[in-house]
Amino acid sequence: MSVFEVINNILKIVGDAVAGLITSLLGAGALSEIVVMFIAAFVICGFCAVAFMAMTYAERKIVARIQDRIGPNQAGPYGVLQPLADGVKMFTKEDTTPATADRWVYNLAPLVIAVFALLTYAVIPFAPSVVGANLNIGVLYVIAVGSGSTIAIMMAGWGSNNKYSLLGAFRTVAQLVGYEVPMLLNVLPVVMLSGSMSLVDIVERQTLANGAHGIPFILMLPLSALIFLISGIAETGRSPFDLLEAESEIVAGFHVEYSGMKFALFFLGEYVNALAVSIMFAVLFLGGYAGPVLPPYIWLLLKAAAVFTVLMWLRGTLPRVRVDQLMSFNWKFLVPMSIVNVILVMVLAKVFVADPALAAANGGIAVSPGMQALILFVSNGVVLLSALGIVARHARQMRLVEAEDLEKRRAQNMLVAAKAVAQ
């Protein structure tokens, strides 16, 4: 095996070596499998912890540059030790518990949100043959596990026995449950085109298609990619959709009664979920670990880092939206547009088939993968432009109605003023 092959497959080689060592020491059986699973879980937790520290440092530096600030620069050279300093601070801060809190629910909530955030990584393919569990329902598993944070936040709001915490938790239910709908609807076109809900199969469909180089789904389904990203931002509670915290309205929301490491676990859950959304976007729409020259796991990390950079950019530039705008944008714009897009992709994928064998067996027009991608790309653009046109027309009509109402009130005020002068 050449050096290049070793570098490309280093994760699989190390994993197989560790599994072989454990099996040789404990023998083949359930015990060795359990030990290997524990080691794999420990590695994933370590990866998420390191990524959490890197993401917090990068975001504070990048957002500081966007807002013309300096950012961390005291703890270590260029402030690189700031995440460690924050960790020490969290460990040493006083851990308080409200006197009237439901202690079991209150104390379990941070642990539950951290566990659900880490469970997502069990099905993510980091490289060929490097995946915790290649489930044939991987996409459904990720969405189901991701929604578990809603339960944890409700536990935090209810267990704190604080009206502001409870209000923040109720907002969470409305926001997270609502934005799961467009997220799921825009995963369906990817599942339809790949013919599988396995994340490994989805990556392979974008890597190779019918013996030729595949096409990333973002070039075929740009509207689905955009709505998935927006829904992912809302699901993780990041700006401009951070209504869950809304410091100016509900004093930090559901975690207002938490301090110390309990608060740090909520913080960890937010960033680990944001990283999971970035990786899932890379897997579903950017080809996952596929790429030339560089090792597969490097490609996946680079694509995820690019997506997370967009999330940081949005946080540093956009103001927070109102809660009514948040829900109206979801239910009145994203959901209807997603439904139309799903139906259109379903019809076009059935009519224009890139696989000649499937076209001959099930009917349809046989086209090249590039032509099918172009047709789907144009259809996505038509749906988006049509939706924006409808919204613009409605907004224009509302402005005209408001202007007409303003003119009527102005005329009435002038008439009242004229009568007053005449008297």
**Which sequence of SSEs, written as H and E, runs from N to C?**
HHHHHHHHHEEHHHHHEHEH
Distance between the termini: 103 Å
- For the largest beta sheet, what order do the strands appear in spatially? 1-2
Mean pLDDT over all positions: 85
Number of alpha- plus pi-helical segments:
16
What class, by secondary structure content? mainly alpha
- The percentage of residues in β strands lies in under 5%
What is the domain tally? Answer: 2
Helix content estimate: over 70%
The description of the largest β-sheet is: 2 strands, antiparallel
Short note summarizing the structure:
This protein has 423 residues and is mainly alpha-helical. It is 72% helix and 2% strand. 34% of the residues are buried.
Structure, described:
The chain has about 425 residues and is an all-alpha fold. The chain folds into two domains: about 1-85, no CATH class; about 95-350, no CATH class. About 70% of the residues lie in helices and about 0% in strands. It has 16 helices and four strands. The protein is globular. The N and C termini lie far apart (about 105 Å).
Topology:
Elements: H1 3-8, H2 10-26, H3 30-66, H4 82-92, H5 103-119, H6 138-146, H7 148-159, H8 163-194, H9 199-207, E1 208-209, E2 212-213, H10 222-235, H11 247-250, H12 260-285, H13 296-317, H14 323-351, E3 352-353, H15 356-362, E4 365-366, H16 369-422
Parallel strand pairs: 3-4
Antiparallel strand pairs: 1-2
Helix pairs in contact: 2-3, 3-12, 3-13, 4-12, 5-7, 5-12, 7-8, 8-9, 8-10, 8-14, 10-12, 12-13, 14-16
